[in-house]
């Protein structure tokens, strides 16, 4: 079984060389395991493209009334013009009201409204036109209305969607198309209908592949943008985004959020004595050690040089202190001279310090880290009391 999985993966990897890792291929099928920052960026992109699509439809939908006026009877033209005006207003409202906020459900609602508007228009116009006896040129123009489902399904290709999301959006359009054929059963040209429906299925498949390909490319780009190229941890920019997001989430839920500022002691001496390449190896080994021992949900970001920030959602000050003491006892790795890497650590927690914004929380953890350095390094400071400023981490552990 494993050999089959590996074979399938290598085949897929060959189609998208260098874009995805094996563990990420599942993210193309369904959105449930997407990393938080990827989900936010994808939701923003989806809403922006919905707004672009809505702008295009808001402009083109009323313009087609000119063709309707030249072809259809006045009564039918007026009814269609009113429907087109209503659709134009709906598209314009979608364009004006829906702004990207990084929320996936918000993006789903936007794309649902985008596809619902022309679908409703298609159904209503079909029944309206069917109530009139048309022949020759008008009947030929009516055939153009049948292309709307094709346009909608082809439009899916501009969105970075998973396979499951593509199917959920496409299925109602396909079902409605099938139902419309069933309603016209007595007069339906089944050969023509079957060919058109088969073409719809092909377009759906192509749009799904295009959307998944966009998503794969986006995954690769986001991964590169989020990660520090040396250590593989989150970069400072992405770390700030995670803190800001977690701060908002925990403030709404009333749960704690702890931040630990970690500064490796005397790291400059490693670069001075052994060279920057040796220093890089120390940084890589240290972050690998820390990452292996993080709790589920914790996020490590490289803040700059030898400074790191550990983001600990749903963690109060005591739990954060215990977790950092445990990390320190495990160790941060070894220097080139076989002496242990030590760190000065400052911890701050949102509820404990009544922080009103995430920057204040990070600044407090930073200040406490400097107090740990001033107190002799190789220690943890998690309060502002003078009795803990010079307390080594091993002493904190005994409390």
UniProtKB/TrEMBL annotation:
Q: Tell me the lineage of the source organism.
A: Bacteria, Pseudomonadati, Pseudomonadota, Betaproteobacteria, Burkholderiales
Would you tell me the protein name for this molecule?
Answer: diguanylate cyclase
Q: Keywords in UniProt for this one?
A: Membrane, Transmembrane, Transmembrane helix
Q: Which reaction does it catalyse?
A: 2 GTP = 3',3'-c-di-GMP + 2 diphosphate
Question: Source organism's superkingdom?
Answer: Bacteria
A Pfam family for this UniProt protein? GGDEF
Q: What PROSITE patterns does this protein map onto? A: GGDEF
Q: Which CDD domains match?
A: GGDEF (cd01949)
MF terms (GO), sorted A to Z: diguanylate cyclase activity
Source organism of the structure: Noviherbaspirillum cavernae
Which top class of enzyme applies to this chain?
A: transferase
GGDEF domain location is 255-385
**Region of interest called Disordered, as start-end residue ranges on this chain:** 374-399
| Entry's EC annotation | 2.7.7.65
Q: Which residues cross the membrane?
A: 52-75, 81-98, 110-129, 141-159, 166-185, 197-222
Instruction: Output the Gene3D superfamilies linked to this UniProt entry.
Output: 3.30.70.270
Locate the compositionally biased regions of type Polar residues.
388-399
Q: Which PANTHER family match?
A: DIGUANYLATE CYCLASE DGCM-RELATED, REGULATORY COMPONENTS OF SENSORY TRANSDUCTION SYSTEM
């Amino acid at each position: 079984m494993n050999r089959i999985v590996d074979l399938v993966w290598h085949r897929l990897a060959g189609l998208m060389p260098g874009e995805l890792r094996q563990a990420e291929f599942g993210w193309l099928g369904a959105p449930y395991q997407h990393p938080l920052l990827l989900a936010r960026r994808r939701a923003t992109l989806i809403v922006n493209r919905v707004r672009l699509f809505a702008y295009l439809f808001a402009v083109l939908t009323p313009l087609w009334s000119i063709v309707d006026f030249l072809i259809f009877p006045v009564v039918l033209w007026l009814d269609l013009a009113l429907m087109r005006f209503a659709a134009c207003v709906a598209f314009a409202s979608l364009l004006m009201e829906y702004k990207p906020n990084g929320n996936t459900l918000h993006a789903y609602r936007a794309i649902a409204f985008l596809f619902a508007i022309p679908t409703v228009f298609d159904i209503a116009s079909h029944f309206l036109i069917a109530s009139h006896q048309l022949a020759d040129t008008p009947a030929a123009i009516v055939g153009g209305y049948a292309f709307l489902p094709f346009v909608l399904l082809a439009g899916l290709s501009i969105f970075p969607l998973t396979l499951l999301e593509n199917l959920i959006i496409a299925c109602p359009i396909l079902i409605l198309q099938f139902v419309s054929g069933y309603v016209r059963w007595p007069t339906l040209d089944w050969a023509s209908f079957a060919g058109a429906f088969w073409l719809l299925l092909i377009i759906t498949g192509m749009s799904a592949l295009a959307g998944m390909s966009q998503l794969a490319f986006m995954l690769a780009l986001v991964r590169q943008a989020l990660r520090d190229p040396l250590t593989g941890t989150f970069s400072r920019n992405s770390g700030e985004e995670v803190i800001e997001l977690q701060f908002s989430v925990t403030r709404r839920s009333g749960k704690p959020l702890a931040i630990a500022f970690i500064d490796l002691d005397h790291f400059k001496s490693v670069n001075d004595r052994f060279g920057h390449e040796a220093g890089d190896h120390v940084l890589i080994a240290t972050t690998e050690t820390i990452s292996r021992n993080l709790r589920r949900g914790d996020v490590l970001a490289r803040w700059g040089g030898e400074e790191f920030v550990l983001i600990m959602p749903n963690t109060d000050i005591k739990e954060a202190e215990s977790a950092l003491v445990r990390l320190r006892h495990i160790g941060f790795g070894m220097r080139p001279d076989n002496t242990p890497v030590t760190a000065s650590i400052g911890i701050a927690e949102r509820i404990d310090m009544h922080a009103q914004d995430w920057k204040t929380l990070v600044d407090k953890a930073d200040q406490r880290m400097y107090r740990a350095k001033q107190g002799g390094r190789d220690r943890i400071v998690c309060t502002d009391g003078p009795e803990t400023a010079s307390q080594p981490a091993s002493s904190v552990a005994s409390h």
